[in-house]
């Protein structure tokens, strides 16, 4: 009903404005278009998936489900998507509705993906399988250093200290005893430190202990003795793709679709006539929202009234 009333207003404005100012039809159409976009924007926004890959990547790369997660570019789901749908390190495996990502020696279970800000939350499967072996915590996230994933600075540092040479009375009160070391008499402790810093140095800590660190997202009121819950809560990773969604949008609007070249693991724009040689655009194209371009200027001038109804019929 709102769109119908708006169309009627557009028609009245168009007839009046064009009769008074026969050379200002483009302005009328522009007003009409702006009003339609403003009123339809919330409707469109509410129906768009959080992943900005639909209709921009290959038809074989439509987002796929694994449990309650939607997997799309730059991630791709093994067994569902061909490798051209994402980068090597973004390969996701779905097992019993659980999405996991194998990276180096560790396997990370994906809890949530935030496509709008290029981040995702994971837990280390080997550390959350119920086996609390503190010696396995050493370098539990070390295999992330040379990948497209970076530990987010909003995480906190959960520090484990074991084989300490000093007695409990000589150590900080904020250190909580850990009971899952192989040798419970080895003076093992957990300490929930501050914000994550990739170059943090724990060599100056007291106790002459062996030290390892795990990033954790944490929660309000968390303390060191909650180390098992903190580990199971996971941590946040930021990811970097070689090309962003804007590149794929340019490719799609020009008649192509994005794909990853599996040979050199880079994004390409596949056009109907083959691979583009001019960035992410197939030939020359005019944006559908550029009213200054000459073809659209003619369209506005000649068909401003019908343009209103055309937009309505599309919606």
Automatic annotation (TrEMBL):
Domain Wall-associated receptor kinase C-terminal: start-end pairs: 180-273
Sorted alphabetically, which keywords does the UniProt record give?
Glycoprotein, Membrane, Signal, Transmembrane, Transmembrane helix
Compartments where found: Membrane
Where does the record place a coiled coil?
A: none
Question: Could you list the residue ranges that cross the membrane?
Answer: 25-44
* GO annotation, cellular component aspect: membrane
Give all residue intervals belonging to the Wall-associated receptor kinase galacturonan-binding domain: 61-123
Checking Pfam families in the record gives: GUB_WAK_bind, WAK_assoc
Keyword Signal belongs to the record: yes
A molecular function (GO) held by this record is: polysaccharide binding
Membrane topology type: Single-pass membrane protein
- For this entry, the protein name equals Os01g0136700 protein
Q: Supply the source organism for this entry.
A: Oryza sativa subsp. japonica
């Amino acid at each position: 009903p709102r769109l119908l009333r708006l169309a009627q207003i557009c028609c009245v404005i168009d007839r009046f404005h064009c009769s008074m100012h026969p050379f200002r039809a483009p302005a009328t159409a522009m007003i009409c278009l702006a009003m339609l976009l403003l009123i339809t924007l919330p409707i469109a926004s509410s129906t768009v998936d959080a992943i900005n890959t639909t209709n921009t990547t290959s038809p074989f790369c439509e987002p796929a489900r694994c449990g309650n997660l939607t997997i799309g570019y730059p991630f791709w789901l093994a067994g569902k998507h061909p490798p051209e749908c994402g980068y090597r390190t973004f390969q996701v495996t779905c097992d019993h509705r659980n999405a996991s990502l194998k990276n180096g020696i560790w396997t990370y279970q994906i809890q949530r993906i935030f496509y709008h800000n290029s981040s995702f939350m994971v837990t280390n499967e080997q550390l959350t399988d119920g086996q609390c072996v503190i010696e396995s915590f050493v370098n539990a996230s070390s295999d992330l250093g040379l990948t497209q994933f970076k530990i987010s600075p909003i995480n906190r540092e959960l520090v484990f200290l074991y084989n300490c040479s000093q007695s409990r009375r000589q150590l900080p009160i904020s250190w909580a005893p850990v009971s899952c070391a192989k040798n419970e008499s080895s003076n093992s402790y957990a300490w929930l430190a501050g914000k994550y810093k990739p170059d943090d140095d724990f060599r100056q800590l007291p106790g002459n202990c062996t030290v390892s660190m795990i990033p954790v997202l944490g929660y309000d009121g968390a303390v060191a003795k909650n180390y098992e819950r903190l580990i199971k809560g996971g941590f946040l990773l930021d990811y970097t793709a070689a090309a962003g969604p804007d590149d794929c949008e340019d490719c799609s609007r020009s008649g192509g679709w994005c794909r990853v070249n599996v040979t050199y693991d880079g994004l390409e724009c596949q056009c109907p006539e083959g691979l583009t040689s001019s960035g992410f655009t197939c030939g020359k194209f005019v944006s559908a929202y550029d009213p200054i371009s000459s073809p659209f200027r003619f369209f506005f001038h000649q068909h401003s009234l019908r343009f209103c109804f055309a937009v309505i019929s599309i919606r």
